[in-house]
Amino acid sequence: MLFTPIVLILTMYASFRGLVAILGFSLGYLVTFLIYWIGWCIVLPLFVLKCPGVLDLFRETKPRFGKTAWKTLALLLWPLPFPILFRFLPKLPDINLSIILVSIIIGVTTGITEEILWRGVYVRIFPNNIWLSYVYPSIGFALWHICPQSVLPNPDPGGMALFVFFALLLGLSWGYYARKTNSIRWCTIVHCIHDSFGLGAFMYFG
Fold first, then answer.
1. Which helix (H) or strand (E) is 164 found in, with range?
2. Angle between helices 97-114 and 185-197 (to 10 degrees)
3. Residue 157 has what pLDDT?
4. Is there a contact between 60 and 183 (Cβ–Cβ < 8 Å)?
5. Using CA atoms, how far apart are residues 160 and 145, in angstroms rounded to an integer?
6. Average pLDDT for residues 180-186, to the nearest whole number?
7. In this predicted structure, what is the pLDDT of residue 107?
8. Domain limits of the chain?
9. 28-37, 94-103, 196-205: lowest mean pLDDT where?
10. What is the dihedral of CA 110, 149, 155, 197, to 10 degrees?
11. 8-state DSSP, 64
12. Is-contact 182 62, C-beta < 8 A?
């Protein structure tokens, strides 16, 4: 797992660039994400933790929020207004049922798989090391976003750099909850909601 972020980023960057060039944007983008979701975010954690271990990531073994409940809750929820304000509301006139349903599927898939890999596995394997359980995977999570950005750059001011920095803040915020509770239950739920409001279906239907 120490080498996973490095290998993942290098291979996924090459995959996005190569498969999009070969298959075209829509199909290449989707196939590369399937490789990421299934191979890196599901198969690898299953190999490392086995099925019971992966399922156990969603069970809270410590008090949910403890004495610093307000801090944990704030770190979980602060990202939610951003996709609502900057993605969902501006595109509201163009949203239809297909966009909503596909966006939810993408959001839920991304939220569950990414939390298993980037929060759950590292917290479970390195429970007593704050750098390896929290800081290192948060940086890896942020830098991984360079890969899809290489073929679909962030159109907002700040471009890729801003997107990666925002992903780093997300990783640190949700990782704080995972480390405090030894669980990914609620950061997974928030991640799914966050990404669903991001309306990822517009990549295919927009």
1. helix 159-181
2. 150
3. 85
4. yes
5. 9
6. 93
7. 97
8. 4-205
9. 196-205
10. 0
11. S
12. yes
